[in-house]
């Protein structure tokens, strides 16, 4: 007489001691047929000791025997069977849990160690795991909190009765399907979910791990730059339509560079960076194209090209300064701007004068 118990860690086949423990085996078989154990959690696991389950509440204080469905709440528990005496000598022994008054319900445990003789007089053995010892090993390897509750959500997913020598009572209505998981099982849990990985790096190659480490370091550096104010946002990325050009000849001008690169598409801005004091070229420049496609074509075609007897180097810009549009700060003097409307440009001159007490007088003169 056997039962297949499917768990989220693997399958177990339990052979039952029907002759030695008929009442316990009847209780276990009928509870399995009622799908009572489906979705029950292994709520307590002690390494090299026992893994306990069979309580639908997952607290260790719930559960009831099959006799409660036949005779009511007064039959929630039944008396333990003591004879013949059986001992916890092997791994995989299956026993019903004594509730403290020598009464048994639905909770049972599976031994994870050998020679646990101090359990012999307390609880009632009714079966032995004959297949699935690797599943027992996985149970024994689980990490738990100080109350022996495993960090991972381990459950019985299904029970299949392979052989039942007992007749079915007509008062028992066996369900046609397994119970659906509750909202608390799926969401309100502090354990690692069934589909979550305990180790996110499991199965990854050394190259993949190195790449992930590099990305983490880049993200950390970006956060540091954001904290010190060098970046507005840690997730900010440079524009895709700007090229960085270096190793320029000092005599190369903005106009020359723009003419050379304009064959790849429209250029919005081409600027060689110069020294603020001497206005000498610092031999690198930024070229902003109208679209990313033109920028990409220029990147592939212009790297290592000879310009003014210098072989230039071209790369995508890593600067984010182009993402910001700074407004000119008002100073005593004249700020000129251009207004475009219907294809015509109208120049507008605004004269700003600061008074002594922080007041401002603005005089505007518009061209006709």
Automatic annotation (TrEMBL):
Q: Which residues form the PPIase cyclophilin-type domain?
A: 6-161
Q: Which residues cross the membrane?
A: none
Quote the Pfam families the UniProt record gives: Pro_isomerase, RRM_1
- KW RNA-binding (keyword) present: yes
What does UniProt give as the signal peptide span? none
Any idea where the RRM domain is? Answer: 241-319
The EC number(s) attached to this protein equal 5.2.1.8
Task: Report which superkingdom the organism of origin falls in.
Answer: Eukaryota
Does this UniProt record's set of keywords contain S-adenosyl-L-methionine? no
Localized where?
Answer: Nucleus
Which terms does the record give in the GO molecular function aspect?
peptidyl-prolyl cis-trans isomerase activity; RNA binding
Checking InterPro entries in the record gives: CRIP, Cyclophilin-like_dom_sf, Cyclophilin-type_PPIase_dom, Cyclophilin_PPIL4, Nucleotide-bd_a/b_plait_sf, RBD_domain_sf, RRM_dom
Record-linked SUPFAM superfamilies: Cyclophilin-like, RNA-binding domain, RBD
CDD domains according to UniProt: cyclophilin_RRM, RRM_PPIL4
Which reaction is this enzyme known to catalyze? [protein]-peptidylproline (omega=180) = [protein]-peptidylproline (omega=0)
* Sorted UniProt keywords: Isomerase, Nucleus, RNA-binding, Rotamase
Annotated Gene Ontology cellular component terms: nucleus
Q: What does this protein do?
A: PPIases accelerate the folding of proteins. It catalyzes the cis-trans isomerization of proline imidic peptide bonds in oligopeptides.
The UniProt similarity line reads:
Belongs to the cyclophilin-type PPIase family. PPIL4 subfamily.
**Which protein are we looking at?**
Peptidyl-prolyl cis-trans isomerase
